[in-house]
Every structure is written in structure tokens, then in C-alpha cells.
């Protein structure tokens, strides 16, 4: 859950944190704030951002410009534990095709952890990036290639939903996923194929961004 530190006590040894809809901050120790947490077999640490004094005054147009350029390396991140961009889509599809769910029982299937979290990322990225891209181009008129990037994300959005019965939701591979669907060979093949289409679209987005930013 996202949260915000709103104060401290005991000379910083105790932090005051607001999360969710609570009105009064909870008190946590500085050690607890950075403890690693086990979640579905993975260990992670909370990511907190402490905003300090302003050190430089960067024009808003330049901030957007840098953000656009940073999309390219971020989409190429790949480690032993996670990956982004087209590699993430291909890993997702490969898990399905390799039979990750074939022997899984209903009591072991966690729809959100095992599947719909990825659908949520796909839906969010393909639906919510367009205003950001418009603002970036308005502030940086030379970034005309962002129109094509936006079109590609719209195409990816339709791969997820609203594509005349050919999208993930329509074939039972969206937020409506079931373990039965993932254990049906024919259906999971269709689902994986659609996810791989998203991977190809992501490759195209990175290509357009790379070529577009190269001449700036």
C-alpha cells in the first residue's frame, strides 16, 4: 500500500505515516520502515522517497523530455527475478505455454498474484499514458513522434479490451481469468498469443522512441 511520511518523533527514531483512508498517522520505527517483506516467495523493501531541499531549477519541458528518454532504458531492464517491456510480456506468455498452471490446484491459485496483476499493468500503461504524452509534446513541439507512440499504446489497449471479440477480456484472458481457462490448452494458447502481440507492440514503441530521441 502506498503511504506518506508526514512527520517524526523522538528525533527521527519514530516516523508518522499516513496510508489508505486513515485520518490519524500511525507510528512506526525507522527500522520497520525499511524492513524487507516476504510476499509470495519474494523479498522486497518498501520504496520511500524523501524529498529534500531543491538543488536545481529544471524547466518543466526538460523534465518531460528527460522522462520520455528514460522510457527506453527502463523498458530494457531484465534480471534473474524480473523484467520490463516486451521481455515481461514474453515471459508472461511463456509461463502459460510452458504449463505453469496445468497441475495447479484451486487452493494454490491466486488470481491477482499469478495473473491479473499483469493485466492491471497492461491496462494501466496502455490507458493512462496518453495525457502524459500530450503534455510532453505540447511542451516539446519537436517530439512529433510521440503521436505514433500514443497510437501504439492505443493499439495495445485494444489488445487488452474492446477489440470486437479478439481482445484478452473477450477470450477470457483479462481480469476475468479463471484457472480453468489457463488449464485449457486451446484457450491458453489464444491468451498467450494475444500477450505476445502486446510484446511486439512494445518493441515497436521502443523503436519509435529510440529513433525519435536520437535526432533531438
Report low-confidence residues grouped into runs of 5 or more.
none
Structural class: mainly alpha
Average pLDDT figure: 92
Count of distinct structural domains: 2
How many β-strand runs? 5
Largest sheet: 3 strands, antiparallel
The strands making up the biggest β-sheet line up spatially as 1-2-3
Helix content: 40-55%
Q: Using the alpha-carbon principal axes, give the shape.
A: flat
Radius of gyration: 21 Å
How far apart are the termini?
Answer: 38 Å
H/E element order: EEEHEEHHHHHHH
> How much beta, percentage-wise?
5-15%
Number of helices: 8
SSE layout and pairings?
Layout: E1 3-9, E2 14-19, E3 26-29, H1 30-33, E4 36-39, E5 42-45, H2 60-75, H3 85-97, H4 111-128, H5 130-139, H6 146-160, H7 179-182, H8 185-214
Antiparallel strand pairs: 1-2, 2-3, 4-5
Helix pairs in contact: 2-5, 2-8, 3-8, 4-6, 5-6, 6-8
Task: Walk me through the structure.
The structure is a single chain. The protein is mainly alpha-helical and 216 residues long. It has helices at 30-33, 60-75, 85-97, 111-128, 130-139, 146-160, 179-182, 185-214; strands at residues 3-9, 14-19, 26-29, 36-39, 42-45. A hairpin with a 2-residue loop joins β4 (36-39) and β5 (42-45). α3 runs antiparallel to α8 (185-214) and α5 runs antiparallel to α6. The two termini are 38 Å apart.
